[in-house]
Amino acid sequence: MTNQHNAKLTTNTGAPVGDNQNTMTAGVNGPVLLQDVHFIEKMAHFDRERVPERVVHAKGAGAHGVFKVTNDLTKYTRADFLSEVGKETEMLARFSTVAGELGSADTLRDPRGFSLRFYSEEGNYDLVGNNTPVFFIRDPLKFPDFIHTQKRNPQTHLKSTTAVWDFWSLSPESLHQVTILMSDRGIPASFRHMHGYGSHTYRWTNAEGESFWVKYHFRTDQGVQNLTAEAAERLAGQNPDYHTEDLFYAIEDGEFPSWTLSVQIMPLEDAAKYRFNSFDVTQVWSQKDYPLIEVGTMTLNRNPENYFATIEQAAFSPANIVPGIDFSPDKMLHGRVFAYPDTQRHRIGPNYNLLKVNQPKNPINNYQRDGSMRSDNNGGSDVYYEPNSFGGPKESPVDKYATLKIEGIAGNHSYQEDDFYTQPGDLYRLLSEDEKQRLVDNIVGGLSTVRLEEIKIRQTKQFYKADKDYGERVAKALNISIDQIK
Fold first, then answer.
1. Hey, what domains does the chain have and what are their CATH numbers?
2. What is the C-alpha to C-alpha distance for residues 78 and 88, in angstroms, rounded to an integer?
3. What are the DSSP calls for 112-140, one per residue?
């Protein structure tokens, strides 16, 4: 590291990097631009850092199930699988820890991945979220760096709490998610006893072409239950596959877990005037402003016959959308739309969608040919280009994505709103006295092992900015003077 001290950050071709915090977008709220070569190089390299297990979400469990519509929301979306009350759609779910390796314990303090696939009649729709409504960062350019802090130090090959808290303390947008992670919700009692969220803002469009912003909430019908830090640590030693085992045998015994899906709906024009940036994944929409509207129920009722064939090879991607559902200008979502399928092409191969678990129910008709592990007839003798004069598949203009007006100057833009403290502070103040104490104890348990005092002080300042009592409690437990954090 000494020869790199205070050196300019560069690309792999030696070009200096002008902005490593914000992706290049078309205006402040515009989409991420493909010309951002630094982001593309950084993310594509990151996607290929681990072989063959997933770079993130390596340890997980899953099951088959069904989604049933219980409420008519066709005035908001023309998505076929949501088109009528009572309609049922086959689905697949995978739950996972984020940072742990394939052999890690299920009960680590970590967000849980909440990945769902709906095998609709118009293609696979994947909703790839977490058990938390927010995330640590809001720009995908920072994602490889964030995950590096969760992995092993290249010299010691050990996990580093110093790296974790150093990054968080220098990324104040992480405070909301850190507060959730260090609270009781940081370790679910089981996959069955946690909520799930789409986290990002998405866009729904109805049959008349009218669009709305939407957020997804899956509420567990089993009730939320969490583990204490002590219980989780004990289980990590006694049964590191505790959550995997719990899900499998609950389904095996006929105790099918279920979740109720509700959504928040925001008119398009509200986004420009809402008090928080509607596309910032570190913020939530108030349910007082946009109440939950029930959509349907998800029930998991069948275990996989073979874990590798079904769960390990399942290639979830937020890029998999269907008519009536589209993306918002959420920059983290745009980054994932690129990164997930790029990772799958590397991890499984370019023809990963030909695997049974990834195949849609409706026929695949396109001109993609060849590539490793091509397992079908490779298009046979049919025409292999488009446009053509031989009756090959043609585009369907009626299924174009909904248009979205964008304007602005192309550049490395940060979100204009930098209120990182209101929502974490509000969350802290909602906790009971016992919950506050456990939150502080969990934070101190991690921060006390950090090697650099400067990082402890900097992070404690973040807590203090969210809530005075929050910061003072952490400071006292770490023997940091209040003057140092004010």
1. 50-169+185-363 (2.40.180.10), 421-486 (1.20.1370.20)
2. 16
3. EEEEEEEEEBTEEEEEEEESSSS-S-S-G
Q: Which of 130, 277, 353, 442 is catalytic?
A: 130
Beta strand 24-26 with 112-120: parallel, antiparallel or unpaired? unpaired
Residue 214 β-bridge partners:
202, 265
Residue 126: CB atoms within 10 Å: 22
130 labelled catalytic: yes
| Across 40-50, average pLDDT | 77
C-alpha Rg value of the chain to the nearest Å: 23
CB burial string 441-452: b at 16+ within 10 A, e below: ebbbebbeebee
Q: Which residue has the tokens 């049919």?
A: 382
Say how far apart CA 243 and CA 229 lie, in whole Å.
Answer: 15
Q: What is the pLDDT of residues 405-418, one digit of tens each?
A: 888 899 999 988 88
Q: Which two tokens stand for residue 121?
A: 């009649």
Q: Which of 22, 29, 38, 57 is catalytic?
A: 57
- The verdict on whether residue 242 carries a ligand-binding annotation is no
Dist. CA 128–CA 117, nearest whole Å: 8
User: Is the dihedral angle over the CA atoms 40, 42, 47, 51 positive or is it negative?
Assistant: positive
Indicate the pTM of the whole model: 0.91
239 given a catalytic annotation: no
